[in-house]
Automatic annotation (TrEMBL):
It comes from Paraburkholderia solisilvae. One of its GO terms (cellular component) is cytosol. The lineage of its organism: Bacteria, Pseudomonadati, Pseudomonadota, Betaproteobacteria, Burkholderiales. Signal peptide: none annotated. Residues 3-83, 132-215 form the Cysteine-rich domain. One of its GO terms (molecular function) is oxidoreductase activity. Pfam families: CCG (PF02754). This is Lactate utilization protein A. It comes from the Bacteria. InterPro entries: Cys_rich_dom.
Amino acid sequence: MRVGFFVTCLIDLMRPEIGFSAIKLIERAGFEVVVPPAQTCCGQPAYNSGERGIARDLAEKMLREFEQFDYVVVPSGSCGGMVRAHYGDLFGDDPELMGRFGRMRAKVFELTDFLVNIAKVELSPGEFAGPVTYHDSCSGLRELGVKSQPRALLAQAGVEVAEMKGCEHCCGFGGTFAIKYGDISTAIVDEKCENIHASGTHAVVLGDLGCMLNIEGRLRRTGDTTTRVLHIAQVLAGDA
């Protein structure tokens, strides 16, 4: 079956290696992966900033490019959440678009949700030396129900997870929130970094690059040059 892979802006521009790791996992599960070359943004930044016209144009573009596939996989809870939870709001006044979106929506999955519930992968223990702690990104957790899936996959891969305090609390990124409310964002991510350190691990794993960049950036700016911040695709694919 054919999987349309939505790369996401941040992975494309900042950490393309995460995309390659995710594709590797999907292909290992027996699926053909197609990366539409003209894909761009899911529209979330525009939507969150009140630019509904721009967001809708991007949503229609994404729909045209991905509705043909058997599944659509997104290695980011925030982008996956934008598609599944908010495109309906943008298309609500157009029955034709809503019908097309409804058919595609059922096929859109965050990466770990896809690997567990659709691909039903069985991973073998790898060489990653744990333990790690895990950060649950807001959109993946609250809009897509991603919680047990990454932990189940890490367990299959033989990676021990030491849960941190407040693992479900925001990291302070929130897309444009970190720009508009820098002081509040910094206070939130400082608490997250404290909880990572208190977990006693030397690596934090997560499934959303926005959170990853915010946490890693704050760790480095406060002098922590050793704690690793890893996307779960990198760990599971053996690329960490």
